[in-house]
Amino acid sequence: MTTEELIDQAIQFAVDYGPKLLGAIIVLIIGSWVIRLAMGGMTRMMDKSSVDDSLKPFLKTVVKTLFRALLFISVLGMVGIEMTSFIALLGAAGLAVGMALSGTLQNFAGGVIILLFKPYKVGDYIEAQGYAGSVKEIQIFNTVLKTPDAKIVIIPNGSLSNSSMINYSAEEQRRVEWTFGIAYGDNVKTAKQVIRNLLDADERVLKDPEPFLAIASLGDSSVNIVVRVWVSSSEYWGLFFDMNELVYEAFNDAGINIPFPQMDVHLHENK
């Protein structure tokens, strides 16, 4: 091929594809600028709204990636590249990757559900998958718990979004319950009054709903009194442990016996 033929082909290529290439470059520049404006507006809108802080980076990443993919496909189409085969190939590759990473994608979907519907948030005390602890971090694939004895537990979001879970921090108030046993023959009214005085003196016990005291059962060796009070969720365990000790001491001072199982052993002499 002569030099003149090469120059002619180059000129023809420039005539055929030059405007398309120039238009694609202009669209790419303008599209990138529009995406930056859109992302800035989205960021300001989320800052003004009540969107959770842990959800903002994820939403921005997903939207930005989607916009860039659409812009990339549009630019390729303007240049003249056939997109049907490209999209089919991309779809097949996505299917193969999805099948290979099905468990990971399930955790990803679970993370999206948790971030959107917020069954729990950072700082909540939850129980799930046989573990209980405070939520330290909500990641896109896993949730990190910190147990009361300072162990770190990492639970996949897929299992959290598809199974039962207890959130102990969801409500501002919780009900505390005790069962105190007294001996048969002791005065039940006196025992209930002793407990009532302790509850009235403790500021952590809420007055509304009113504390509930009643005989729960007549056991084998004790009369069991059930006590139920409402307290702020943050005060639950402090009140629970303190009241056990206070009732024990108050029963001793009031002469109320706390029964315990006893066994009589009879010895027989064989002659």
Topology:
Layout: H1 3-48, H2 56-79, H3 83-100, H4 102-117, E1 125-128, E2 131-138, E3 142-146, E4 152-156, H5 157-161, E5 166-167, E6 173-182, H6 188-201, E7 212-218, E8 223-232, H7 236-254
Antiparallel strand pairs: 1-2, 1-5, 2-3, 3-4, 6-8, 7-8
Helix pairs in contact: 1-2, 6-7
Structure characterization notes:
The chain is an alpha+beta fold and 271 residues long. The protein has three domains: 3-100, Helix Hairpins (Orthogonal Bundle), CATH 1.10.287; 119-167, SH3 type barrels, CATH 2.30.30.60; 173-254, Alpha-Beta Plaits (2-Layer Sandwich), CATH 3.30.70.100. 52% of the residues lie in helices and 19% in strands. The chain has seven helices and eight strands. It has helices spanning 3-48, 56-79, 83-100, 102-117, 157-161, 188-201, 236-254, and strands spanning 125-128, 131-138, 142-146, 152-156, 166-167, 173-182, 212-218, 223-232. The protein has a five-stranded antiparallel beta sheet with strand order 4-3-2-1-5. It has a three-stranded antiparallel beta sheet with strand order 6-8-7, with helices on one face. Helix 1 packs antiparallel against helix 2 and helix 6 (188-201) packs across helix 7. It is elongated. The mean pLDDT is 82.
What is the structure about, briefly put?
The chain has 271 residues and is an alpha+beta fold.
Index terms:
271 residues; alpha+beta; Helix Hairpins; Alpha-Beta Plaits; 3 domains; 5-stranded antiparallel β-sheet; 3-stranded antiparallel β-sheet; 7 helices; 8 strands; 19% strand; elongated
What letter string, H or E per element, gives the SSE order?
HHHHEEEEHEEHEEH
Share of helix, binned: 40-55%
Tally of individual helices: 7
Question: What does the overall shape look like?
Answer: elongated
How many separate domains make up the residues? 3
Q: In this structure, how is the largest beta sheet organized?
A: 5 strands, antiparallel
CATH architecture of the largest domain: Orthogonal Bundle
Please report which band the strand proportion falls in: under 5%, 5-15%, 15-25%, 25-35%, 35-45% or over 45%: 15-25%
Gyration radius over CA:
35 Å
Q: Numbering strands along the chain, what is their spatial order in the largest sheet? A: 4-3-2-1-5
Using the coordinates shown, work out and report the CATH topology of the largest domain.
Helix Hairpins
